[in-house]
Amino acid sequence: MQADTTYDAIVVGAGAGGLTAACVAAAEGLKTLLVEKSPLVGGTAAVSGGMVWIPANPKMATAGIEDSVDNARRYLEGAAPPAREPAAREAFLARGPEAIEYLEARTALRLRPVLNYPDYYPALPGATLGGRVLEPVEFDARTLGGDFALLRWPLAEFMLFGGMMIARPDLPHFRAALSSPRSAARVLRLAAEYAWQRLAAPRGTRLVLGNALVAHLLKSALELKVSLRLGTGVTRLVMRDGAVSGVEINSGGERRTILARAGVVLATGGFSHDSKLRAELLPAQVSPRSPVCAESTGDGLRLGLAAGGRIGERNSQNAFWAPVSRFRRADGSEGVFPHTVADRGKPGIIAVTKAGARFTSEAVSYHAFVLAMFRANLDSATNPAFLLCDRRSLWQYGLGAVRPFALSLSKHIASGYLTRAATIDGLAALLEIDPPGLERTVATYNEDARLGVDTKFGLGGDVYQRFLGDARNLPNPCMRPIDAPPFYAIRIVPSDLGTVAGLLTDGAARVLGTNGQPVPNLYACGNDMNSIMDGAYPGPGITLGPALVFGYIAGRSLANNPTNPEKTYAP
């Protein structure tokens, strides 16, 4: 077989999982190629919150928080369905701490524990109130030099002033900037630093959240001499004697064959933007619009299936859910805003149906919130839901694409994204919500809010929900009367934050064939791999956590693959 070139390892997809696999393979001494069809690296991870869920991670012990694999296993037994492929879930639990130690020792990645971010079901046995969640430390993009241009930008709606990222710990200071001198000083310092950064860069160089996570990994890939081939698609896997031996790529219409001695890792981000797979695997009421990276079109799944792999078909859900709202940006492009933690659950914001009734606690996880939408038969066309608030809550917390402290609402109102009325009854009429139903719902909510106890759905009733609220708002961080006109609402519909159904793998990240045996030399991680959570969402970062761990496992598996006895490159 003639090949244009040969590597030890080839990774397809430059999201968090693919970057991790490539970095580990290179750190283990393999000549590694990373292929990405987009001209940018990072995928959905680059626009995400960057949270990484790793039970019993070494950072917890340093912070004095006790955890164990047995404790995490007990929690998942209550929060997730029984694992269809238990070997993969067990590998994640057993090797997660090892992966974090390795990545911090051998790459530029640096993580820190979020000590107060609870698991999503804190009342279950084995749950923790913080520490399992890790976040990337902030990253100075100037250290990337010209390669900063390779990094995917965050969503515009999550930046200020056209390019300033806001870290999670900064948010309370921005909210309190007008009432706290300490917060005002911090905000002014950040704004001044941003203005200085923009003198030499197209956006702020202080990176946080998922953009920082990807930047750490990109820096590592460059330092470890991983070969990057961006703007390049993979058209097929090359097979020889039933084993994967390379890839055929398409770059600018030119097809080339590249061989891989040790194997190929699929990490293309799942199928959130593949209409055929969405129709086959996702419920009909889910919006076709997704906030996931547009390049996540199921490439890895199709490549894996053609090589003999199979897709997990018995997940409780085939995607990770989030409610979204849709809007038009100033440049005419369509925006899809994921309502994860920014507005839902904040005081004075409720979710209602066209009947004017609430259908769940607004502060449950985004995945659980959409499951409640499914139970209420809410969809993206005939029966949407609405997030509703008053003037005070809109000003303090924003609502979807409407930022907090917005001095003008005219563009959002003119576009129809935001609806405003002087009365609750008037708002109901504009949105075709049942007026008496909405009046009763708001009256009951307001009465409960004054006492701090939600008699309908227990809003703010556990530590996770209170974490999502506003600690300054007492007695319930998630509730405040909706009584300051005018009143506002936006439409929300169910969508996904990524797909669950993917290629079945074992604990070594090897893709399993229809006979249950590994497809030789083929690996998968990230959303190309069937989720070890089987459709549940037990905590923040349960997509990125497994992506990093199985990217690490795939990289180590490649290095130990006996089909490549001699490593051809040692960094």
Short structural summary:
The chain has helices at 16-27, 58-62, 69-79, 86-106, 171-175, 181-197, 209-223, 275-281, 299-306, 366-375, 391-397, 410-415, 424-431, 435-451, 463-468, 544-559; strands at residues 5-12, 32-36, 52-53, 111-113, 133-136, 139-140, 159-160, 164-165, 206-207, 227-230, 233-240, 243-251, 254-266, 319-328, 334-338, 349-352, 385-390, 419-421, 487-499, 510-512, 518-524.
Describe it.
By secondary structure, this protein is α+β, with helices and mostly antiparallel strands. Among the domains are: 5-45 and 230-318 and 498-533 and 555-559, 3-Layer(bba) Sandwich (FAD/NAD(P)-binding domain), CATH 3.50.50.60; 320-496, Flavocytochrome C3, Chain A, domain 1 (Alpha-Beta Complex), CATH 3.90.700.10. 30% of the residues lie in helices and 20% in strands. The chain contains 16 helices and 21 strands. It has helices at residues 16-27, 58-62, 69-79, 86-106, 171-175, 181-197, 209-223, 275-281, 299-306, 366-375, 391-397, 410-415, 424-431, 435-451, 463-468, 544-559, and strands at residues 5-12, 32-36, 52-53, 111-113, 133-136, 139-140, 159-160, 164-165, 206-207, 227-230, 233-240, 243-251, 254-266, 319-328, 334-338, 349-352, 385-390, 419-421, 487-499, 510-512, 518-524. Strands 1, 2, 10, 11, 12, 13, 20 and 21 form an eight-stranded mixed sheet that branches. Strands 14, 15, 16, 17, 18 and 19 form a six-stranded antiparallel sheet that branches. A three-stranded antiparallel sheet has the order 3-5-4. Helix 1 packs parallel to helix 7, helix 1 runs parallel beside helix 16 and helix 13 packs across helix 14. The longest helix is centred in the N-terminal third of the chain and has 21 residues, at 86-106. It is globular. The relative contact order is 0.19. The model has no long low-confidence stretch (mean pLDDT 93).
